[in-house]
Specification:
The chain is of the alpha+beta class. The strands form 2 sheets. Strands 2, 3, 4, 5 and 6 form a 5-stranded antiparallel sheet that branches. Strands 1-7 form a two-stranded antiparallel ribbon. It starts with a helix and ends with a strand.
Length: 470
Amino acid sequence: MRTTSLILFFMALVLAGPGCTKVGPDYQRPELPLEIPSTYQHGRAKLTPPLTLSTRWWALFRDPQLNRLVEDVIRRNLEIKASTEKVKELVAELIIKRADQFPLIRLEGAYERQKRPLIGIVPTKTFTTRTKYYTLALPASYELDLWGRVKRAEEAALARLLEAKESRLTILQGIVAEAVALYFEIKAIAKRLKVARARIKSYEEELAVLEKRYARGLATLLDLTRTRRNLAKAKATLTSLRLELGVAQQELAVLAARYPHTQEPDQQEEIHFFLPTPVPPGLPSELLMQRPDIRRAEARLKALNAMVGVAKASRFPRISLTGSFGYTSNALRRLFEPTSELWGLAAGIVQPIFDAGRLKASQKVAEARYKQGVIDYAKTVLRAFREVEQALLAREELIKKRSQILDYLEQAALAEALAKSRYSRGLGDYLALLEARQRRYEAQEELILVELAIVTNRVALHRALGGAWE
């Protein structure tokens, strides 16, 4: 009966531990030192229905090949795999910290056989005795978490786990954005290669005609030299584009954890890009708070806040309980008899008296780290708003520039047609035709580059927002 009462008393203390006081501040999201508008400055303010973020933002480009590429990168990328393993590591650490709230119970068994002399029973004679013991016990130990030190440590471990999960999402978003940007860069180079080949073919055909005209005295040597110069320049441009294509393909292959190989571009590539649907007007700024790096910064802040409580609780006394229950006997057959029962229960308290200010300084360190975390959190939020505003501003200007280049291309094509007509009728010189043709090719090149800038800007916008709107 006495043993049962002691065990029940021990268990009551264990169960009472989690309900004890937690010293240190409870987490509250800090106020940011800036005024955040409800919508973005360059987001065309207008009332819109409530929006949510979708992480599959690349689907907006409606490109099945791109979707397959992104899925392959997510599945195979080594940085994403490493971040996944980091999450698993912190899950295990959380289990370790959580286990500190419960008693440690072990099973101990022992067998001891001993021979020792007995001296002094009979003068001048020594006797020996042999003994053996069998022991089976369940020792237990537990620290009463009166000040919430263990509970705060668990809070910190949970926050670090959340930080690792958000860090993985941040890495994933960054890797996916890089892969999508490289995909569009490769497509743009393929389009530019198509224009370059058309330019080379045009110059070669024109050179053949000029050589015949020069042989008959109908063209000047200067016209012939200019065409050869332009052909050589176009071929050099083709070589540079092939190099750019190979480098981009290798980088994309490495992102997908594949050997950095190269391949010929798609010969059927269209000149124009498919441009996704416009950004909805009045995009609410609170969507940005769902960005994984912002959530990661806040999770880190929660962990630092909990560590302040750990440091403060470490300055209070620690109370530990130890107990043991089992059996011991010199005969195995009598091991579990009531007369072989053994038990013990002890309580201990430890209070630092003098540590030269170590524990107080540790608390100040934790508080200073929390304040640094608050600053880092504000910097992360401010940087996120800057990235979104920059992407929206660039989008406005790039769309205007594309419209202007389309007009330029139309006028360049018209000027080339007029120059060709005048030259064929002997009313214009060859230099005017050559210049008009160069302007048309330049306009095609600029259109490809500005459309690439528009789609990569859209990639940057989704990365800045942390996803796509729905």
